[in-house]
């Protein structure tokens, strides 16, 4: 599974200025924006609770300016993924205490553990390369980011 196969160009978001500096408020905004491009917006509260529980158990700010908030849900049938690039730092309570500038949100079917592991692995593999992160952070459009991801 390649990262570009799970993130759609219409689910690549930019924030020049953060609407909030509070992690959970921003995550809720991001979830709503991600679900607005799916048929699951009416399941927002149930998915939000799963995502919130996962994030409260342990921060998904994995370090190096990257966060991968994720959860499983019985409402999700296929992987739903968004990629968000921030022009401002967001404190995500990361393991290395580094603020986040790239957020990959993953929503995965509760019944597909294999897809869960493969999706997380594809994100990790894509963003382990510092030059990819730098290119994405200096990009100016979702289409430019999508092309960078397709070329990895």
What does this structure look like?
The protein has one domain (3-150): Mannitol-specific EII, Chain A (3-Layer(aba) Sandwich). With 152 residues, the chain is of the alpha/beta class. Strands 1, 2, 3, 4, 5 and 6 form a six-stranded mixed beta sheet that branches. The model has no long low-confidence stretch (mean pLDDT 93). The chain has helices at 3-6, 23-35, 44-57, 113-127, 130-137, 142-150; strands at 12-15, 61-63, 66-67, 70-73, 80-90, 100-109. The chain is 41% helix and 22% strand.
Number of strands: 6
The number of domains:
1
Approximately how much beta-strand content do the residues carry?
15-25%
Oligomeric assembly: single chain
CATH class: Alpha Beta
What does the main sheet amount to?
6 strands, mixed
Number of helices: 6
Mean pLDDT: 93
CATH architecture verdict: 3-Layer(aba) Sandwich
Please mark out the parts with pLDDT under 50 across 5 or more consecutive residues, or reply none: none
Give the % helix: 40-55%
Rg measurement, Å = 14 Å
Distance between the termini: 12 Å
Structural class: alpha/beta
